[in-house]
Amino acid sequence: MRDGRPYPEHGLATKDWAMIPPRQIRLDTLVTTKRELALDTLLAEDSTFYGDLFPHAVQWHGELYLEDGLHRALRAALQQRTVIHVRVLDLDALMSTDPGRVL
């Protein structure tokens, strides 16, 4: 667990995330960037009703940081699932193809 994002700002909006296809990720490979968990959100059945169905993660320096979807990941863990579908923005790949890119 971290407190905050260790990677640079990427500027993706919700519609941009929707363009990234989800893929299966092992829960034990995700590092959360949030220190607090809201129990009411965890227990809410409609917590993703207005948002993306899939959590968002950012790959940076070989690590997968869970940017959005902590409650969905925890619910999956409580259901004894080991993997979830996640949209992954690979900043490592983006930066290696264009090192001068400013996000």
From TrEMBL:
It comes from the Bacteria. It holds the Pfam family VapB. InterPro entries: VapB-like_prob. This is Transcription regulator of the Arc/MetJ class. The lineage of its organism: Bacteria, Bacillati, Actinomycetota, Actinomycetes, Geodermatophilales.
